[in-house]
């Protein structure tokens, strides 16, 4: 089994003559937390949308677990175990935390969203749902409506619904966006915990979070890979420093 779980070769995306992602080569190793960072306009979001099949590439190939997924849909790659969080797993605000996770478990088993099904049929998912809520630190909020949870705890619930799909690899799109510091610390610890037996690729602006969590960091600038390595390596790279400082004045 290859230690590379997700790979991109010459990944390119053009929009009417503008090259947003330009020949990106990427290797995400199995079992690692890999961060994709870069100044505003670097092409991070476009690259992430290509990898998760929300956008088709102009050129290039994407392989997951040795399988060419370039032409596959986001739903099909989710079935393979490659799941993007926060888009695919929005919670139902008026349902409890337990009910939200239960619905995600139904989906994984191929069951339809039958809210009117008998309590007996639905309750067969309860034990597994409670286990997932415990995994993300939400046991005491089992019967709380999602709309009543704090922003950070809503994010934790979204991660629980994503984990219900039993992904081998999680793609997290700016998991700390809009969070207060206490929530950032809680979700950072949660991501660290759930990464124990999974691979994670994340786009994240918060560099202290990136420094804390990441094994490998790929820095994009103007659609190209500028640098790659651990945090100590990339943070001291003069090209990276210049890209961030330049962007700050732009």
TrEMBL record:
Alphabetized GO MF terms: ATP binding; ATP hydrolysis activity
SUPFAM superfamilies hit by this protein: P-loop containing nucleoside triphosphate hydrolases (SSF52540)
Alphabetized UniProt keyword annotations: ATP-binding, Nucleotide-binding, Transport
Keyword field contains Acetylation: no
InterPro entries linked: AAA+_ATPase, ABC_AA/LPS_Transport, ABC_transporter-like_ATP-bd, BCA_ABC_TP_C, P-loop_NTPase
Cellular-component GO terms for this entry: plasma membrane
Segments passing through the bilayer: none
Annotated ABC transporter domain residues: 6-247
SMART domains xref list: AAA
Name of the protein described by the UniProt record: ABC transporter ATP-binding protein
Species the sequence originates in: Tianweitania populi
């Amino acid at each position: 089994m290859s230690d590379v779980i997700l790979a991109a070769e010459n990944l390119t995306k053009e929009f009417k003559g503008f090259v947003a992602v330009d020949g990106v080569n990427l290797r995400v190793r199995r079992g690692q937390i890999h961060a994709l960072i870069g100044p505003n306009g670097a092409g991070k979001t476009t690259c992430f949308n290509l990898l998760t099949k929300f956008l088709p590439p102009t050129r290039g190939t994407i392989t997951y677990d040795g399988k060419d997924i370039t032409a596959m849909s986001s739903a099909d790659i989710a079935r393979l175990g490659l799941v993007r969080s926060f888009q695919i797993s929005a919670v139902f605000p008026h349902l409890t935390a337990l009910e939200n996770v239960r619905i995600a478990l139904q989906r994984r088993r191929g069951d339809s969203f039958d809210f009117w099904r008998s309590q007996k049929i639905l309750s067969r998912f309860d034990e597994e749902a409670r286990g997932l809520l415990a995994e993300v630190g939400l046991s005491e909020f089992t019967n709380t409506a999602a709309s009543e949870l704090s922003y950070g705890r809503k994010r934790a619930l979204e991660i629980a619904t994503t984990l219900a799909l039993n992904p081998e690899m999680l793609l997290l799109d700016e998991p700390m966006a809009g969070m207060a510091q206490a929530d950032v610390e809680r979700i950072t610890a949660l991501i660290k915990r759930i990464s124990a037996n999974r691979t994670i690729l994340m786009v994240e602006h918060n560099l202290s979070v990136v420094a804390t969590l990441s094994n490998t960091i790929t820095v994009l600038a103007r659609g190209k890979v500028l640098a790659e390595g651990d945090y100590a390596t990339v943070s001291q790279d003069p090209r990276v420093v210049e890209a961030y400082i330049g962007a700050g004045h732009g």
